[in-house]
Amino acid sequence: MGLDFDRVLSGRGRRQCKQLHAWAKDPEALGAYGPVVALVSSAARTRETFHRSFDDTDWIVAQEFRKSLYSGSREVTGEDLLDELIEFDTVSTSLLIVGHNPSMHELALLLASEAPESLRSHGYELGGAYVFELSDRERITHRRYELVARFVPD
């Protein structure tokens, strides 16, 4: 696929993963929203982000890695990511997606019933986790959801 697909995290990215990992293990922080099933881009840095952030937590119950989330060979939009989530959603637990900008930013704007100013003006912050409240009885769909939490590493 190319050099970008194989690129690993920078030192900053690895530090951000440590913060995400701490939040995922904390039942009062990101860990409050688990257990989750995870849909992850198969690019090297997203796989690394996923493993560094969520390995050795009991937060992830299943994961799937997909090349279709990576924009290297074609443009992947927020709509494309939403369609992937709709197909992937088991309705049995929370959903997690680990992907790339700008499509993650587009997805967050598509889902947010009210997007915070920081998301509208600064984009989807690298290493960030945004939590939307979904129904636990129906699949995610093309509609708006309440943004209930945001975790953005330093």
End-to-end distance, in Å? 30 Å
| CATH architectural label | 3-Layer(aba) Sandwich
- How much β-strand is present in the residues? 15-25%
- Sheet with most strands: 3 strands, parallel
Backbone CA Rg: 14 Å
Please work out how many helical segments DSSP would assign. Answer: 6
Architecture overview:
- By secondary structure, the chain is an alpha/beta fold.
- The protein has one domain (3-151): Phosphoglycerate mutase-like (Rossmann fold, 3-Layer(aba) Sandwich).
- Helix content is 36%, strand content 19%.
- It is built from 6 helices and 5 strands; from the N terminus they run H-H-E-H-E-H-E-H-H-E-E.
- It has a 3-stranded parallel β-sheet with strand order 2-1-3, with helices on both faces.
- Helix 2 (11-25) packs parallel to helix 3.
- The termini are far apart.
- The model has no long low-confidence stretch (mean pLDDT 91).
